[in-house]
Structure formats: structure tokens, C-alpha cells
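Preliminary data (for renewal application), arginine complex.
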Amino acid sequence: MFDEFKTSIATQLAVLTGAPVKDIVDAIEIPRSNAHGDLAVTIPRLRIKGNPVQMAKDWAEAFKVDEVITNAVSTGPYINFRINRQVLTRKVLSDIHKTQDKYGWTNEGAGKRVIVEFSSPNIAKPFHAGHLRSTIIGNLIYNLYKANGWDAISMNYLGDWGKQYGLLAVGFERFGNEEKLVADPILHLFEVYVAISAAAKEDDSLNDRARAYFKSMEDGDEAALALWKRFRDLSIAKYKDTYARLNIKFDVYSGESQVGEAMTRAMTMLEECGLITESEGAKLLNLEKYKLGVTPVKKSDGTTLYLTRDIGAAIERFEKYDFDKIIYVVSSQQDMHMKQFLKAIDLIGLPYANRFQHVNYGLVRGMSTRRGTVVFLDDMLRESKEIMHNVMRENEKKYEQVTDPEHTADVLGISAIIVQDMLAKRIKDYDFDWKRILSFEGDTGPYIQYTHTRLCSIERRAQGTVKVNPDADVSLLTEKHAYEIVTLLAQYPDVLANTLRSLEPCTIIHYMLELSRAVSSAIEQMRVLGAPEDVAEARLLMYWSARAVLKNALTIIGLEPLTCM
Ligand code: ARG
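Predicted structure:
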């Protein structure tokens, strides 16, 4: 959005300094505070011999201002420029009006395919905070790719295979209850799993039975597979409901169980590369040379392991989807596993090995609900909704006006969880804190939603008196608050691009918070109703644009934008 201004500055400076236009454009920044200028060049970044302070002074004095760049002054090694704010404002607001919900989106990914693998919980085990992080970070990444024109595929790689599913089957005979299974498969399978694991500690023969059962699953025994498939299908059906609450839909439910024949090919390739050693009938992948240890890839009974399955799945995914890129959103606790996996596919010479990317994230400490520290996603969402609902009820008058309080509370609770999760760099661990995240003030999800609803209410109240007019006279937006909003709106396309580049959710979250703060201060000072008609129209166009961008951003991070609360 600032391109026109940057080029204008750079073209003149190139003549004065001898530096290439492109280098100068790259050295132009939007200062954090615009007290000294709207755009600034840091002279040392141009790498020109001489005293930067003196050079800045000389070039600022020589710079000829015009209609677009209206002022140039130096401060220390910087040159600060004033731009024609009206030109920027007109351009930004009309752009947003034209593109609306797609403002900032690009077609950069056209013709390219990306798979984003995320969430990937384990059947019969708790959906813990780590899975929640993968789920919401992964969904953001998926949405971002789509917004940039990629053919994006969301994939859930379930933990649905291994000896523990043999144990689960054995456990179901003893502890299973058909009604409970149908009512809440995720919870019931977990209960069965906990009970049978405890029993197996006392009675080791149960472990032998579990191993035998799993072996029959691997050998394709139909009866064994039928029961397992039922557990899987019921769990997926239940997960789908919960994901829907988070506005998430998986294009593919894959899973460890789905990996097939490619594992045999992978094993042969690993052996041919001399990476396999044998020990007591088991096969080990030796990556010691790369400081990645020695890991089993085949047990002595011939069954496969987590790592084997990931390598096999990589090959099958490529053969099936022919992707240009694949992203694995997996906890940093599995960094070692992911490194071994990526090394292995590289060493066996898969020509597409460089299309794989691991996106990791840190731990969440202290996430618990009243039911205890074993947390299911459902519990989490229910609890945040309840707490939110209580907060809403405290303001009786407002509460009466909310059309669907249940749903609003649900969305607010989810907003709180998601925004807190995305507030810091992915890799950082954080402490879960209900109190902090549910506040309507500060850096929270409810605060952003609240700002969105305020913008919606400005539009609602203007209806009938003022219209959203793309040709409104924006020269009437003279307040500094207006310029703050406009600069932020102008930066949104860059924010999306930067978030996609770094895959750091905090980039877009900090932007949303900053925009929300700018909107909050403008609302106090710049009223629509009661202002002269032409001023009201210009202001409404500005608020309408801010609302469109906030809605756009909320949707990308996976939240339903609330229109009232
Ligand atoms: N199911 C695994 C877990 O819960 C996560 C799977 C991650 N994805 C992968 N391709 N390994 O730990």
C-alpha cells in the first residue's frame, strides 16, 4: 500500500546517493511512532561510505518535495518523510471497499498445492494442550495458504495404530460398554484404556494378548480390524463436531493405520543406504553420524513403529497428492523424532525431500478444568464457554440484548483460548490462565471481538442516516486517530505476507490488537452520528473498512467474528 510512496522516495534518493532503487525501497520503514515522519530511511542500511549523519542531512536538504512526498528532514542517521496522507487514505479505503473480505489476499500460490498436517490426536488418549496448539496453529496456517491462492489440503494424522489398540480391544471385552461408547466414544475409550492399562500392570498376560491382537490387525484379520474401525469411526465422528465448533474442517482424515506398502519400500531404501543395523531381530535406524541417535523402525515380531509410519506416509502422500509443500505442525517435544524423519527421507534420496517443513511449538503449562488435569478438548471448550457466559450475565442490561447468548459465550471462550495461544512466538512455553485470557480488556480474544462488535454497532446505528460510500470525501479525515487507523489498514497485506513467511501467529495477533486499540481510541473522538453529513460519511467509510479488515483477520485465525455481544 505504501509502494507508491516508497518508489517516489527511492527514485529521487537513488539519484542523490547512487544506491539502487530496490535497496532504498528495502531500507524504508514505517516508524513505530509517526511523530517525526510517516516513512523513514535508515541511511547506514544503504552501506554507503561516509558519515551517515552528515549524509542524511545533505540528502534531506537536497530532496525536492512534491504532491506525494510533502516533507523530508533528517534526524541523526535517518531521513524522515511526510507523505500526502489523503492520497494514501483514498487508496487504502477504496482498495478495501473493492476487495472487502479478500483484502490483502494474493494469488501467489496459484497452481501450487500444500498439505498442512495438524491436530493429529491419538484415539483412546486425551486430546491434550499440545494437540490443541497444533490444531489452532495448523488451522491458521491452512487458512493463510488458502488466502494466498494455494490449493491447500488440511490433514489429520490420527494416532490410531500400534500395540495400544490391541490393548484397547482386549480392554473393551472386559470394561467396554456399548451405550457409553456410542454416547461419548472419546471419553469411554479413554476410560477403557486407563482401566486395561492398570490391569495389564498386574497381569502381564494381557500385554501378550494385546500384542497378539495388534499382530492380527497388522496381518489384516477382518474381525480384529472391524472392531478397531468402529472405534476409529466413532471417534472421528465425535471429533468432527468439536472441530466444527472451532471452524475447522479436515479435508483428509488420515492416520498411522492408513500407511501401507510404502513402508516396505522405505525399509529397503534405508537398508540399501546402509542405515539399518539389526539387534535381536529388531531393525534399527542408525543416524549417529548426524547426532540423531539409533531408533527402532521394525520390532522383532515384524510390526512397524511411529517413525517407520511417518517415512512410509511421506512417500504415499507425495504419490497421492503431488504436493509442492507439506507442513507438519507438531510439538517441539517431538523435535528429535521430526529431525530423524526428515533426515531419513533426505538420506534415502526422495527428490521432493526439500518440500517438507516441521512447524513446532512449545508447551502449555497448567491447563486444567474443574474435572482435573486430564483435559479433553470438549471439556476445555465447555468450561471456557461457561466462564464466559457468567461474565456476560454480570451486565444484565447488555445481556438482554444479545440474541444468542449461548453461542456468543461459546465463540468468546474460544476466542480467548486461541488469542492467548497465539500471543507469543510459537516456540515459547506459556502458563494457562483463565482469568487473564477471558478479560474484555488487554491483549485478549474477547477484547478483539468486542472491538469488532463496536464497529458493527456503529454501522447498525448509522443505517438510514449515513451510507457506506466509497466516494466519500476522505480529506475530512484529518484527526491523528484516523491516520493511525489508515496506516494500520494499509499494512494488513504485509502482515499477512509476513505471517505466511514466518508462520508465526503472533504477527497477525499483535496487528489485530494494535488495530483494536487504534479503533477504540478513534471511537471516543470521532463520532459518526451527530457529525456533519460529509464528515459522517467519511468516518463511516473508515470504520467500515476497519471492520472489514478485523473480520478478515479473525476469520483467518479461525474465529467467527461476532456482530454483537
Ligand atoms: N499423534 C501424534 C501425537 O499425538 C502426533 C502426530 C504428529 N504427526 C506426525 N506426522 N508424526 O503425539
